[in-house]
Design a protein that fits this description.
heterodimer; A: mainly alpha; Helicase, Ruva Protein, domain 3; B: about 190 residues; alpha/beta; Glutaredoxin; five-stranded mixed β-sheet; two-stranded antiparallel sheet; 6 helices; about 15% strand; elongated
Amino acid sequence: MTRALAALGLLLVLAATPAFAVSNPSEMLANPVLEKRAEAIGMQLRCLVCQNESIEQSDATLAAQLRGIVRRRVLAGWSDRRIIDWMVARYGNFVRLKPPFDPMTYVLWGAPAIALAVGGAAVALARRRHPVGPDPLSPAEQRRLADLLK
Amino acid sequence: MDATTRRRLLMAAPLGIAAVGSGLFWTLLARMQQGTYDPHALKSMLIGKPLPTFSLPGQPPSAGFANTDVTAGKLPALVNFFASWCVPCIEESPTLMALQAKGVPIWGIAYKDSVAATTRFLNTRGNPYLRVARDADGRTAINFGLYGVPETYVVDRTGIVRLRYAGGLSEDSVRNTLAPLLAKLA
């Protein structure tokens, strides 16, 4: 019981919040609602320097600068969409951690469906090749089997 | 096709796939070594578009410049972001000097650097630039979509960006990438 509780506690701690690099309180907006929005936007934007972290998680100076830009634009009343578009206009769709559904990413987003179709086709093909087992034994064969097993 | 041939084919399939895969992988590594493929390189949003609007102060004694100055020459030109604190910038400086000697106009932008450090850098490494401007806070760089220094942008005679080269230029990258493009644009 205690062990289960400890495990649950650990899980909660690990799952609680992603590690934010915004450790410097002077970077954060005073208004918690706006700060939360800025964080949510920042979490969707890739740090171009480390490439696998969001700008909220990265310690790179460029990421810090982009965080500042997001926050100033949030304060200025820009919509999330407009801020992200501003970034995309400069850095391309690569800056978005969640790529949009467009011709470049059809294969990416369609991958699960494609995998399912290929797997389904393979199963169907295998089924067709070995349709059903042999015919059931005739009464004569069953008698013979019974004799043999005696 | 009888059962044995089919079985043999099935057995050979993984080997075949592995062979094709390693062939592709080998090409990839070879191209990375040649410098013709960089997995971290990003496609610039500026390609096919005019330079972003900017007007930057000069690094004394150079006058500053604006995007319109770069295109006023009606010649293909390079815009090179550099910094004294960046090692690849030091490495690429002989290559830039060689390009300048060949008559390629190069516009320098000192990225997030002090006047004194930039002066020292230009004095020791040479100054291949037509003019040097200062982007002290890096805001112009963000409008370029810059994600590190050095970065070099090739602008054609009509002022359209044709190439972004991220990272230090070398003899190889000039021979394989830059020189053919400049020849085409000339």
